């Protein structure tokens, strides 16, 4: 029997859980690389007006993140249970890595 998903009243409550799901350094690095590629693909699509670049966003973002979870973190991505908060968490963790608040 599957465990019931925890409910979070806010993103502020969710984010510590999210960080706990990303304890492995390689997983965090793969998330960072994926999010960087997502931002690059978005910038390329806008700058070149070739919006086909947008297909790369979910492939790069989720692809690298899921490799991190399945092969290094050995857990199920939070995206499956908390899609919106997880997407927000990706970008907040990305910012926190740049700010030196989350080690990479």
If you had to describe this structure to a student in words, what would you say it looks like?
The protein is mostly helical and 104 residues long. The chain has a domain at 29-98. It contains four helices and no strands. It has helices at 11-20, 25-48, 56-73, 83-98. Helix 1 packs across helix 4, helix 2 runs antiparallel to helix 3 and helix 2 packs across helix 4 (83-98). The longest helix is centred in the middle third of the chain and has 24 residues, at 25-48. The mean pLDDT is 94.
Task: Give the topology, please.
Blueprint (H helix, E strand, L loop, with lengths): L10 H10 L4 H24 L7 H18 L9 H16 L6
Helix pairs in contact: 1-4, 2-3, 2-4
- Summing up helix and strand content along with how strands pair, one would put the structural category as mainly alpha
Give the assembly state of these chains: single chain
Rg from C-alpha positions? 14 Å
Output mean pLDDT.
Answer: 94
Poorly predicted regions:
none
Shape: globular
């Amino acid at each position: 029997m599957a465990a019931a998903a925890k409910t979070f009243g806010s993103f502020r409550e969710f984010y510590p859980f999210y960080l706990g799901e990303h304890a492995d350094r390689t997983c965090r690095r793969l998330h960072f690389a994926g999010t960087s590629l997502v931002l690059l693909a978005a910038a390329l699509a806008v700058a070149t007006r070739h919006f086909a670049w947008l297909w790369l966003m979910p492939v790069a973002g989720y692809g690298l993140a899921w490799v991190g979870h399945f092969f290094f973190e050995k857990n199920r991505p939070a995206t499956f249970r908390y899609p919106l908060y997880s997407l927000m968490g990706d970008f907040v963790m990305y910012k926190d890595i740049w700010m030196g608040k989350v080690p990479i």
